[in-house]
Amino acid sequence: MIDTHTHINTVPLLSDIDNIVSRANKNNVLHMIAVGMNKKANQQGILLSEKYPCIYAAIGLHPSDVNDEQLDIEQLEQQAKHNKVVAIGEIGIDLYWVKDNFVLQKEVFIKQIELALSVDLPVIIHSRNSANEIYDIVENYPSLRGVMHCYSENVELLDKFIDLGFYIGVGGIVTFKNAKEVIEIAKKTPLDRLLVETDAPYLAPVPYRGKTNEPAYTAYTLSKLAEIRGLTIAEMDRITTDNTVRLFTKMNIQKQTSL
Q1: Can you give the pLDDT at residue 18?
Q2: Which residues 6+ apart lie within 8 Å of 159 measured at CB?
Q3: CATH 3.30.110.30 holds for 2-247
């Protein structure tokens, strides 16, 4: 399995990283992407990728950080050349916590999209109460590729994102009993566009809901996805692994050609 979105590059997971990685590998989570949010997390993700063969990194400025940290495109461009940096992210727009800086969020988002295109990397997009705003932006970049991370809003826009070539990341929310919209998204997303993720340390799946999430728990989300789509766990593992390798082309992982 591959956890395509985890924040092992931040506390509390970072403080126990050896055990976190060990538990993930023992639970058949053999690769993971440490997703950045700001300069500190970006750099830490790269350092982890250099220490652990199973870890790759993504770099970017999260929309929730745009008020606290200035976007440094030149630094991101240099970091993007690292052989284990596989994406620009987590980037996007978040109108849940703060709405009055939408113009700034949009400006930072667009600059990072243009960076991703210039360095030929996919984007990892954060969307919260902002799917319409994000779609209005990304539809202007037909060659952009990426994933709508932990997508849980506006099922009506799902097909439009998929038509643009985006993948859909499904996390632990899909295991929650009341997660009707996310379950519907998991049902409707074409199999060749599904990715599995944890968003650890957040959004731990059942049976760990409410506790600290970690990459080892990818298995619970994968199992639920397999159940929803009427597939075996092995089949869903193969599908999501192949999808991950297809999107994140710098990941040095072989596609799974057999079960």
Answers
A1: 98
A2: 188
A3: no
Q: Structure tokens of 51?
A: 């220490």
Taking the CB of residue 92, how many other CB atoms lie within 10 A of it? 29
E strand residue ranges, the chain? 2-6, 31-35, 55-59, 85-94, 123-128, 146-148, 167-170, 194-196
Chain mean position to CA 209? 19
What's the pLDDT tens digit per position in 67-87? 999 999 999 999 999 999 999
The β-bridge partners of 59 are 88
CA distance 9 to 89: 13
Distance CA 95, CA 107 (A): 14
Give me the DSSP letters along 8-74: TTSTTGGGGHHHHHHHHHHTT--EEEEE--SHHHHHHHHHHHHH-TTEEEEE---GGGTTTS---HH
Q: Of 94, 98, 92, whose CA–CA distance to 166 is shortest?
A: 92
Nearest CA to 168 among 129, 128, 132, 124?
Answer: 124
Other CB atoms closer than 10 Å to residue 14's CB: what's the count?
17
Single-letter amino acid, residue 107: E
Element (H, E) at 24: helix 17-26
CA angle (82 as vertex; 79, 83 as ends), nearest 5: 155
pTM for the structure as a whole: 0.96
Asked if residues 82 and 46 have their Cβ atoms less than 8 Å apart, the reply is yes
Side chain identity, residue 163: D
The rounded distance, in Å, linking the Cα atoms of 186 and 73 is: 34
Are the C-beta atoms of residues 89 and 125 closer than 8 Å to each other? yes
